[in-house]
Amino acid sequence: MLDRIFKALVKLIIKPNGVIAPQGTNAHIYSGYGTPEGLITAQIGSIYLRTDGGVLTSFYVKESGDGNTGWVAK
Description:
The protein is of the alpha+beta class.
């Protein structure tokens, strides 16, 4: 089991700005304060962890659009 976890972690790239990028995909993992809608430009499939969120406003998924819109709280 640890071998599978380690292999998965090896495929992650941490960019200088702190964004986590799974290797071989355009989707990224972001975090920060406030909603990503209108602020974070990302590819569909990206996720955003809101550090100041509450119920249904702490986890966002980029579901549509090419720019900084299309983020949906989950």
